[in-house]
Design a protein that fits this description.
The chain is α+β, with helices and mostly antiparallel strands. The chain is built from 11 helices and 21 strands. The strands form 4 sheets. Strands 1-2-3-4-5-16-6 form a 7-stranded mixed sheet, sandwiched between helices. Strands 8-9-10-11-12-7-15 form a 7-stranded mixed sheet. A hairpin with a 2-residue loop joins strand 18 and strand 19. Helix 1 packs across helix 2. The longest helix has 15 residues.
């Protein structure tokens, strides 16, 4: 019988492990890594980068699985919280279905508990697998595709110009402002910004009264619907704005490209309703959704959040919108028993203490709790979906008011 995941030795990977690590990733992510040899230099570079550690699971001297643990800071309600990102989870082809991936994830959770990292994020290869381990989907992205002529030609478009090297500090400051407006946005380090600017050939910024108030990164792709080579579609690969002026400038600028591109592809969070700007919000494919309804946008789910230490996470969350509330929690967490012990929190003036006379009792699992914590789900929605119960129905609206975030969760970091 082959060794189970729980008999494996997990340790940080070293430069000498790179050839075996490359083979594991090559077989796990063939579309990401089409050629084996170039991966060696890339993985050595990854090992040398700050803020991340690669771990490998070994059966004797044989590497049978691996993952990357990132050291992030993410925004919740205007306050940065330490966050462990999990990425590049890979298992050797001949060791699948033996619990190795689960063992790697449990190792990551243990490391986060040891370093007092209260939350974790990842992009799932399969949502149901990670949901069973406690992660909940938090970011919903809408893909809009439309003709640029459908957008209003706002005169603020004149504030958009090609970004210069001297604009980098202003762009970074703009992102820092944006960071504190949405849950799950990840703080970018100096190394992150070096990588970002190094991959931008079409970066534009918006000038306003306070400096740079927005920016957008663009890419062109052939529109395969047409045979002529001049038929291109425009992809907005990243867009950030911090003022209404910057939003109008970006919209007006994209509208001005109507003679150059056939359509625009723009990704936005759920609460950014770009279709409200469009005279024709359909996706320009004439796809019928249901009877006489046409498709306006596609919806994608990806980023998942998990609370690793519920008590620490509630203390560090920051704002509860000034709503006083005393809650008795019962959270089902099969991976971290400490989270499953019932406890009481009193919220007063955005401060959390662990005592008091509960006004309501909330029962849920850690996956749903993580969605509530990250602002992706309200308690009323969780109750409707049979994901939570509340002892006092009349108090649900106060809970929702306390945990409501001004804007929905979003993330521009891929890992």
């Amino acid at each position: 019988m082959k060794t189970s995941a729980f008999d494996l030795r997990i340790r940080p990977l070293e430069p000498d492990d790179v050839p075996a690590w490359a083979v594991t990733n090559y077989n796990a992510y063939p579309s990401f890594y089409p050629h084996l040899e170039p991966m060696h230099d890339e993985l050595r570079r990854v090992l040398a980068l700050p803020g991340r550690t690669a771990y490998g699971a070994f059966d004797g001297d044989t590497l049978v699985g691996s993952y990357l643990l990132y050291d992030f800071e993410m925004n919740v309600t205007g306050r940065l919280v330490s966050c462990g990102g999990i990425g590049l989870v890979a298992v050797a082809l001949d060791r699948r279905k033996q619990g190795i991936a689960r063992g790697l994830i449990q190792h990551g959770l243990q490391r986060m508990r040891e370093t007092q990292t209260p939350v974790s994020m990842l992009y799932p290869f399969r949502t149901d697998f990670y949901q069973r381990l406690g992660w909940g989907s938090v970011v919903e992205v809408r893909e809009h595709q439309f003709k640029p002529s459908s957008m209003p030609a706002f005169p603020e478009a004149s504030a958009v110009r090609k970004a210069r090297e001297s604009d980098r500090a202003g762009i970074m400051a703009c992102y820092a402002t944006f960071l504190r407006t949405r849950p799950c946005v990840i703080h970018r380090t100096a190394a992150d910004w070096t990588s970002f600017f190094g991959h931008q050939s079409r970066l534009f910024c918006v000038e306003g009264e306070t400096g740079i108030e927005g920016y957008l990164s663009l890419a062109f792709h052939r529109d395969e619907r047409y045979s002529e080579r001049l038929a291109n579609r425009l992809v907005v690969t990243e867009s950030v704005y911090t003022t209404p002026h910057a939003l109008r400038a970006i919209v007006g600028f994209l509208a001005s490209l109507a003679d150059q591109v056939t359509r625009i592809r723009w990704f936005a969070p759920r609460d950014e309703r770009l279709e409200l700007f469009l005279t024709d919000p359909s996706n320009d494919e004439r796809d019928e959704l249901w009877r006489l309804y046409r498709v306006a946008y596609r919806v994608g789910v990806g980023l998942m959040l998990r609370v690793v230490d519920v008590r620490q996470a509630l203390v560090r969350r920051g704002s509860y919108n000034g709503v006083p509330l005393c809650i008795r929690w019962r959270i089902d967490d099969s991976q971290i028993p400490e989270n499953a012990v019932p406890f009481t929190t009193t919220i007063a003036g955005d401060q959390v203490t662990f005592a008091g006379d509960p006004e309501l009792e909330v029962s849920t699992d850690i996956s749903t709790f993580s969605q509530l914590y990250g602002g992706a789900l309200s308690l009323s929605e969780a109750i409707w979906a049979q994901k939570a119960t509340c002892s006092e129905p009349d108090a649900v609206s106060r809970f929702d008011a306390a945990f409501r975030t001004a804007r929905g969760p979003f993330c521009l970091t891929f890992f």
